[in-house]
Predict the structure of Nitrile hydratase.
Amino acid sequence: MSGSFQAGQRVRVKRDFPELRGPCHIRTPHYLRGREGVVERPLGAYPNPEDLAFARPAAKVPLYHVRFDQPSLWNEGAAGDTVLVELYEHWLEGTA
């Protein structure tokens, strides 16, 4: 399964908080929701851990390394410092 995003593409992490709607398992850090980053590389497709955590059937979902500018996340660090995070495709959206 190939994903929707390519290396070098700008993406935004969805600003969603499903944990407010009930029990769930989320692998997307709160501090990244609504933030923009750049796809470093696709990693392949893996069973969705948000379903696996509840022993539900889990479709394979593309996973990406996404790079974020560190100073814009935490107001600390030097220019050029980055944070690399693994994010599943259903948490990402393209930017205009």
Summary: The chain is about 10% helix and 40% strand.
